[in-house]
Amino acid sequence: xxxxxxxxxxxxxxxxxxxxxxxxxxxxxxxxxxxxxxxxxxxxxxxxxxxxxxxxxxxxxxxxxxxxxxxxxxxxxxxxxxxxxxxxxxxxxxxxxxxxxxxxxxxxxxxxxxxxxxxxxxxxxxxxxxxxxxxxxxxxxxxxxxxxxxxxxxxxxxxx
Length: 160
Hints:
The chain is of the alpha+beta class. It contains seven helices and four strands, in the order H-E-E-H-H-E-H-E-H-H-H. The chain has a four-stranded mixed sheet with strand order 2-1-3-4.
């Protein structure tokens, strides 16, 4: 692929999002990943409605596509372009994939204004996950799970 500037790369993400949005596949969210040489690796959009998958956000789909193409879970050196500031789930996936640079178009307030609701998740996290109306988290059977963790550790498996 050719070298591209920010404007062109974001336009590709917008175009992908607009296309699938108009097909009722998902919302106005598109994402694109480039490698360290600015070559396009993945272009994806939100497909929550088509896939009936709440995790099928544009960033998640782009990370999955890039990881598959590159044959690795480690996207170090890659950059992500997205039409909106990533939600908490996508931020987690971006961080886990080792992407260190993200360019985004709209911000969380813009998304909130059209009905997308990320703030309650950020608030839930800030408040130490204590709001049981959102999610009830309860520790159970820690000892047996710790045994599993110890087994993994003893096998000297790859950490990611």
